[in-house]
Amino acid sequence: MKDFRNTEYLKSGNNRQRKAYTELNELKIFESLKKYNPILAGTVPIEIDLPESDLDIICECENHPEFSKVISELFLGKTDFNIDTYDWNGTESTIAKFKTTEFEIEIFGQNIPTEKQNAYRHMIVEYKILNQKGAEFKSEIVKLKSEGLKTELAFAKLLGLNGNAYEELLKIKI
Question: What is the pTM of this model?
């Protein structure tokens, strides 16, 4: 399986992945946020992104005011920069967003190890499903997403999952 903790895989990926690699390195995001164990999660790493898909960088942070200060110092001057801390599904979370020439970037911090955060866990399950189901399934996911379905909902629909798609996906063992 790919090591999603290291963005080197993006260098040899598809066109958007290579652009993401360049953009992230120019911004020095992973280098600057190293103490927060950043991981690029979401649809770009597993190649089911749409042209408007953002880059989701998840981080582990215990101290939200400190994390907010670091993020603000690094990216305050970026286009449409916004940062806020609030309760996300019962967990204190800090979310920063800004735009670059190629992408919208979202940096998401919680006091949960990055590999245990739902964004990462969903991506890993989705990656395994895509590898198991093949190219046609992957094309159907992208088609459903382009029609407006969120990623987890597209997977749930094609897999016939009932209930909360976000929870049901995490129950799948592959």
Answer: 0.94
